[in-house]
């Protein structure tokens, strides 16, 4: 029998970007997956969380992916909302999972929790060595609180909860709303629009900031492997291990799309965290995972999907 065959699984945020890829992978392996939709289960309320567990019963696994997310602009505009909504949701879901004695918990953190000035590549032991980058610090702090909650439940109640820290995700199925999308889909949308109009492309920041981009299906695979093989309380990084500047990313996308217009860097806009790349040795040693998708290949697949969805 396959490991996931007939396993009862809840995936909060299962209708989101990463969630859809995880749900599809779990179902392909025979898992019985329940995805609570926000219109039926508001996980920012105790009633919504209680009703979710009442309707599903005790799961074998709880993947907690649900979050209120957005890019730099959204985080700067409504920081209190990001802090409150994520903190209250994480707290209520974890507490009710404890009360009903849910099975193993796999919680997804954020690379935004790392200190603004952190030695690269980021190692899990440095997570608490400073305050996160200001533009997304409230969101990052809500995710650090989730880790503390999991570790506290492990010590007090013996709850088996693991915490994974994915870096910047991308791929087909990403959020294409211009006001809330992250860097890769936002750049693709604006570059395609500039190409159609024959206009220059304006990009926020200096282009010097770097990121570690992880293909979404690689991340879904990591979550499943960790659920099966990892049972420790220490956080685990999930990234490609490849550091790419925003300037290099823009050029790579221009090559893929065939955009040859002018690129203007708006240096009055924030770069966000100066550098970001993860050390993923712990994921390899603990449950045998490493990213398998080359960035250029992943970007080409993402561009093809966005052309089909956004232009058709």
Detailed description of the structure:
With 312 residues, the protein is an alpha/beta fold. It has a domain at 8-174 and 212-242 and 277-292: Rossmann fold. 44% of the residues lie in helices and 14% in strands. Helix 6 (183-197) crosses helix 10 (295-311). It is globular. The relative contact order is 0.14.
Question: Which properties best describe this structure?
Answer:
single chain; globular; two-stranded parallel sheet; six-stranded parallel sheet; Rossmann fold; alpha/beta; 312 residues; 12 strands
Mean pLDDT: 95
Report the structural category: alpha/beta
User: What is the beta-strand fraction?
Assistant: 5-15%
Total DSSP E strands = 12
Summarize this, please?
With 312 residues, the protein is α/β, with parallel strands linked by helices. It has helices at residues 17-28, 46-56, 72-77, 79-99, 137-157, 183-197, 216-229, 246-257, 281-287, 295-311; strands at 8-12, 32-34, 61-64, 104-108, 161-166, 168-170, 201-204, 210-211, 213-215, 236-238, 244-245, 263-266.
């Amino acid at each position: 029998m396959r490991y996931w065959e007939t396993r009862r699984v809840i995936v909060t945020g299962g209708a989101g970007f990463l969630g859809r890829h995880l749900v599809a992978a779990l179902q392909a392996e025979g898992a019985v997956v329940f995805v609570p939709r926000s219109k039926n289960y508001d996980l920012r309320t105790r009633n919504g969380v209680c009703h979710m567990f009442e309707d599903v019963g005790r799961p074998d696994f709880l993947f907690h992916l649900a979050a209120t997310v957005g890019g730099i602009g959204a985080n700067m505009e409504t920081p209190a909302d990001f802090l409150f909504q994520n903190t209250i949701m994480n707290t209520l879901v974890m507490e009710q999972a404890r009360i009903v004695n849910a099975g193993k918990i796999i919680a997804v953190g954020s690379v935004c929790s790392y200190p603004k000035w952190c030695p690269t590549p980021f190692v899990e032991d440095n997570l608490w060595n400073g305050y996160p980058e200001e533009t997304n610090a409230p969101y990052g702090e809500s995710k650090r609180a989730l880790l503390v909650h999991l570790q506290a439940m492990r010590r007090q109640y013996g709850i088996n909860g693991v915490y994974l820290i994915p870096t910047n995700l991308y791929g087909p199925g990403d959020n294409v709303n211009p006001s809330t999308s992250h860097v890769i889909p936002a750049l693709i949308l604006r570059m395609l629009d500039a190409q159609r109009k024959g206009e220059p492309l304006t990009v926020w920041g200096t282009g010097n900031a770097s990121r570690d981009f992880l293909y979404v299906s690689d991340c879904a695979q990591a979550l499943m492997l960790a659920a099966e093989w990892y049972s420790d309380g220490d956080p685990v990084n999930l990234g490609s291990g490849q550091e790419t500047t925003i300037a290099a990313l823009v050029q790579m996308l221009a090559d893929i799309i065939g955009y040859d217009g002018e690129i203007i860097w708006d240096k009055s806009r924030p770069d966000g965290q100066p550098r970001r790349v993860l050390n993923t040795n712990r994921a390899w040693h603990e449950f045998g995972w490493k990213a398998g998708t080359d960035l250029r290949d992943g970007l080409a697949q993402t561009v093809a999907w966005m052309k089909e969805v956004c232009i058709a």
